[in-house]
Amino acid sequence: MLLTISRDPAVRLRDIAAVCQITERAAQNIVTELERAGYVRRERTGRRTRYTLLADGSLRHPADMHVSVPGLLELFISLPDQS
């Protein structure tokens, strides 16, 4: 989900759900949790939402706390598309 948002900060929740192959309701809940955890910020502009990834975050699991979210996203973005 963070990867989808990083690729298009103006992505619609419906499109996030489609890319992640989950329901729109599940996507909404996950985005809300990501926002509460400090990974993303939502900003409404009219009827659209724009997402901002907060670059200072790191993963929460104790085994992965040394991994930054931007570092993880860079790994996936730099890989060639397999589709």
Give a quick precis of the structure.
This protein is an alpha+beta fold and 83 residues long. Helix content is 45%, strand content 14%.
Low-confidence segments, given as residue ranges, are none
Q: What structural class should be given to the helix and strand makeup?
A: alpha+beta
Largest sheet: 2 strands, antiparallel
Total strand segments: 2
Radius of gyration: 13 Å
How helix-rich are the residues, as a percent range?
Answer: 40-55%
Strand arrangement, largest sheet? 1-2
Number of helices: 4
Q: How widely separated are the two ends?
A: 17 Å
Mean pLDDT: 81
Tell me what you see in this structure:
- With 83 residues, this protein is of the alpha+beta class.
- It has helices at residues 2-7, 13-20, 24-36, 69-78, and strands spanning 40-45, 48-53.
- Strand 1 and strand 2 (48-53) form a beta hairpin.
- The longest helix is centred in the middle third of the chain and has 13 residues, at 24-36.
- It is globular and about 35 Å long.
- The two termini are 17 Å apart.
